[in-house]
Write a structure and sequence with these properties.
Length: 218
C-alpha cells in the first residue's frame, strides 16, 4: 500500500478516536442517604455557613449556582424572600426556614503510595521514601467532592445527604463545581445508594446537561 494511503488511514483512525473521546462527556458519581420521596409543601431553606465560609469572598458564587439548581426543584431561599418583602413593605410571612442546607466542597490530589521492597522486611524503612503515584496514566489526579446536607430547621435532624465526586486533572475547584451541582441534584431525592451520572461536557460546567443517571452496584 502506498505510503500516502497509510498516512491517510492513520489520520482517519486518530480523528475517529478523538471524536469518540469528545463524545464521552463528563462522568461523576453520586451517593445519597436519607429521604426517598420528594418533600411537599414548604420548601424554604437557608444556607448554613462555617466561619471559614463566612469569610470566603467566593462563597456567594458557589451558593448562587446552588440556589439556581435548587429553584428547579421548587426550593426557595428564605433570606431572599424576606428581603424582597421588606423592600416592598409587604407583611413578612416567610420568616423562618423549613430546611438548613450545609454545603461542603473540596478539591484534593489523589494517588496511591508505591512502597519499595525494603518495606517487606523492615517497616521502619517505609514512609519517608514512599512516593505517591497514580494508579494508571489515565487516572484523575484530583478529586472534587461536593456534599449537601439537608437538615430539619426545627429538630436539627439530618434528613437527607447527597455527595457527588469527580476525578480529573484540573487542580482548580471552579470547573468541577458546576458538574457536581448538576449531578447531586440530577434527581431529588436519589433513592439511596450509588449512582453514575453522565453529563454533556460544556465550556462552563454550570451549563452542563445531564445525559444519563444509572445505579451502581453497592
Amino acid at each position: 500500500m502506498p505510503l500516502p494511503m497509510k498516512t491517510f488511514l492513520l489520520t482517519c483512525v486518530v480523528l475517529a478516536a478523538a471524536s469518540l473521546a469528545g463524545c464521552a462527556g463528563v462522568r461523576t458519581e453520586v451517593q445519597a442517604t436519607g429521604m426517598h420521596e420528594a418533600p411537599q409543601g414548604d420548601l424554604r431553606y437557608r444556607f448554613m455557613r462555617t466561619p471559614a465560609q463566612q469569610a470566603d469572598v467566593g462563597q456567594s458564587t458557589w451558593e448562587s449556582q446552588l440556589r439556581d439548581a435548587l429553584a428547579q426543584h421548587g426550593f426557595s431561599d428564605a433570606n431572599d424572600a424576606n428581603e424582597a418583602n421588606a423592600a416592598s413593605g409587604a407583611a413578612d410571612a416567610t420568616r423562618g426556614s423549613r430546611y438548613l442546607i450545609s454545603v461542603a466542597y473540596e478539591t484534593r490530589p489523589v494517588g496511591i503510595a508505591v512502597r519499595g521492597p525494603e518495606c517487606a522486611s523492615n517497616a521502619d524503612n517505609c514512609g519517608a521514601n514512599d512516593a505517591p503515584r497514580e494508579a494508571s496514566p489515565f487516572a484523575g489526579r484530583y478529586l472534587h467532592r461536593l456534599t449537601l446536607r439537608f437538615i430539619d430547621a426545627r429538630s436539627g435532624e439530618e434528613i437527607y445527604k447527597v455527595t457527588g465526586t469527580r476525578r480529573d486533572r484540573d487542580a482548580h475547584a471552579s470547573p468541577a463545581f458546576g458538574y457536581l451541582v448538576k449531578s447531586a441534584l440530577a434527581r431529588f431525592p436519589f433513592d439511596g445508594g450509588r449512582w453514575q451520572i453522565e453529563l454533556r461536557e460544556a465550556d462552563d460546567g454550570r451549563q452542563a446537561d445531564v445525559v444519563s443517571v444509572k445505579p451502581l452496584s453497592p
